[in-house]
Specification:
The chain is an alpha+beta fold. It folds into 2 domains: 8-196, 2-Layer Sandwich (Fructose-1,6-Bisphosphatase, Chain A, domain 1), CATH 3.30.540.10; 207-336, D-Maltodextrin-Binding Protein, domain 2, CATH 3.40.190. It has helices spanning 8-17, 26-47, 69-83, 148-151, 220-231, 249-259, 280-293, 325-336; strands at 56-60, 66-68, 90-93, 100-101, 111-119, 130-138, 160-166, 170-175, 180-186, 191-196, 207-209, 242-243, 262-265, 278-279, 297-299, 317-318, 320-323. The strands form 4 sheets. An 8-stranded mixed beta sheet has the order 4-3-5-6-7-8-9-10, with helices on both faces. A 5-stranded mixed beta sheet has the order 12-11-13-17-15, sandwiched between helices. A two-stranded antiparallel sheet has the order 1-2. The mean pLDDT is 95. It binds 6-O-phosphono-beta-D-fructofuranose. Residues 119-120, 211, 247-249, 265, 278 line the site of 6-O-phosphono-beta-D-fructofuranose.
Length: 337
């Protein structure tokens, strides 16, 4: 008999079944909504210029980034998938200044979803990796319309996190708090199929990813670590390092899940006041949960990302150092010197 493999939906239903009668099916429905958004985005990203989705708009998001056409389309696809099915109670997105309440009269679910609908979107126009990142929290029980405060919770409270990488193939990588699993989109049947069960990040690595053009703005611990990597076998780290920069966090973290490595976007002189470059709620926290669940580590250099105290701003920023456990610990040690 020809077999199709385990689809993402059947995998999630199975996971929920293990919870016995505690699972209502709502969480499965929510992940299904997210999957539908990601399939819609994958379809357009894959068509590229044929679908007329390249290029920029005239608007900027709250961070002052010029919004690409596809940023807005991906954002709309996420909102459309999430706000109509009664699985979600509130939405926060990189592309929205404020958290979004669901329209009057729409059924409310028990979950909050934060997302970056198109991470690394400057890669869109050059036909390189882009992705979506999402994080799921429990919604407060007593509120029709959750506020920014309700989204401002430490990463340890996430109940699920994932990303969808739109690369040569599209892949959904997901954790619900018991390991990390990867699913590849089979475009013939339109389903994500389990291809990378129980993903684990090797503890050791000699590959790092950092935007080295920012070197002059870095703090001393990062400057010293990278200088030591560049010295290779002759330096204090005693081995030859390789460097990569995809310029889309989803691509970097996916590479690290597949073969190890560390990804750094540290605080620097330009972004110090803002607290870093990457966003805590929909970049740092979900990726930190995935990386830790795959056996890696995620730190600001001074503390575990998942324990960073949120400040009430859905667009709060955070310094990021994550990937292979032993290498992250080495970099943290540079900060403790
Ligand atoms: O905004 C997030 C992001 O696009 C990440 O996905 C990526 O790692 C980083 O910014 C790229 O930054 P830079 O512009 O410094 O290469």
């Amino acid at each position: 008999m020809q077999e199709m493999g385990t689809t993402l939906s059947s995998f999630i239903i199975d996971e929920q079944r293990k919870l016995g009668n505690k699972a209502s099916g709502e969480f499965t429905g929510l992940l299904n909504d997210i999957t539908i958004a990601c399939k819609g985005i994958a379809n357009l990203v894959n068509k590229g210029d044929l679908a007329g989705v390249l290029g920029v708009t005239e608007s900027e998001n709250s961070m002052g980034d010029v919004q690409k056409k596809m940023d807005l389309i991906a954002n709309d696809l996420f909102i459309d998938a999430l706000q109509n099915n009664g699985h979600c109670a509130g939405i926060a997105s990189e592309e929205l200044d404020e958290v979004l309440s669901l329209p009057e009269g729409k059924p409310r679910g028990h979950y909050l979803v934060t997302f970056d609908p198109l991470d690394g979107s400057s890669n869109m126009d050059i036909n390189m990796d882009v992705g979506a990142i999402f994080s799921i929290l429990k919604a407060p029980e007593d509120k029709e319309n959750p506020t920014a405060e309700d989204f401002s919770r430490p990463g340890t409270e996430q109940i699920a996190a994932g990303y969808c990488l739109y690369g040569p193939s599209s892949m959904m990588v997901l954790t619900t708090g018991s390991g990390v699993n990867g699913f590849t989109l089979c475009t013939s049947i339109g389903e994500f199929i389990l291809t990378h069960p129980n993903m684990k990040i090797p503890e050791e690595t000699s590959e790092y990813a950092i935007n080295a053009s920012n070197q002059r703005f870095w703090e001393e611990p990062i400057r010293q670590y990278v200088a030591d990597c560049v010295e290779g076998e002759e330096g204090p780290l005693g081995k030859r390092y390789n460097m990569r920069w995809v310029a889309a966090m989803v691509g970097e973290i996916h590479r690290i899940l597949c073969r190890g490595g560390v990804f750094l976007y540290p605080i620097d002189d330009r972004n110090r006041e803002a607290g870093g470059k990457l966003r805590l709620l929909y970049e740092g926290n979900p990726m930190a949960m995935i990386v830790e669940q795959a056996g890696g580590a995620a730190s600001t250099g001074y503390e575990r990302i998942l324990e960073v105290a949120p400040n009430g701003d859905p667009h709060q920023r955070v310094p990021v150092i994550m990937g292979s456990k032993n290498e992250v610990e080495k970099i943290v040690a540079y900060h403790n010197k």
